[in-house]
Amino acid sequence: MELKEKINKDNLPGHVAVIMDGNGRWARKQGFARVKGHEKGVGAVKETVEAAAELGIQYLTLYAFSTENWNRPKYDIHALMKILLQAIHNEMNSQKDNNIRITTIGDLTALPVKSQNELKRAVEMTSANTGLTLILALSYSSRWEIVEASKRLAEEVRIGTISIEEIDSKLFASHLTTYSIPDPELLIRTSGEYRISNFLLWQIAYTELYFSSALWPDFTREEFYRAILDYQNRERRFGLTSEQINQVEATKKKRTK
After folding, report:
1. E strand spans, the chain
2. pTM metric for this prediction
3. Among 16, 87, 137, 159, whose CB has the most other CB atoms within 10 angstroms?
4. pLDDT tens, position by position, 150-192
5. Which residues are known to be catalytic?
6. Three-class secondary structure of residue 107 per DSSP
């Protein structure tokens, strides 16, 4: 039986986030410049997006470029931006035809104007689609996001829109860039590294983590299926005991009868 056939479609994570890591190491292993790894990684993006859409997953967030990545050599940044532009342009019609909606999170004002315009066009062209929502995290970091949310809340307190007493986790979350997106249920990181790398720190409080040894350019839809199957074999307790979870599930079954 193929891996895809083993997946329970009734127990899919609604939102999968991916830290795409290993492009540079893949290139070095092949004897290529780093840019070749980024180019090859575009194929893994396409594989992952198609796999998620075919399964019926609702949200897929890809960590494409962090705020820390701006510290890389200028040539590397320029190459990344060029590849990003080409990938968005080449795949835009495909995403529209496949009912995939594109959106973004991050400080887009830091991106080159051409990249900003291409992203805006992709978001507008796919805005009416109702299938998978593909979220591109660009010039994004969780600490940046949390600081920006704190600034907005502080300003609202200053002008009297809200009081300090009103601030709770729900209100804080509504000021994050992901306010309209459910928290990830599964986070995948490739390349064998065991780090979160400043990604969705607030949102992954109860997210299941899956670490793949595959370098990102080698990450296939089969690897994606393995991550989903691993997720489906876990018990998600959210601070409760197994007995409490079983009681909740038993109550749900009774109500549906």
Report:
1. 15-19, 59-66, 101-105, 133-140, 186-189, 208-211
2. 0.90
3. 16
4. 999 999 999 999 999 999 999 999 999 999 999 999 999 999 9
5. 21, 69
6. coil
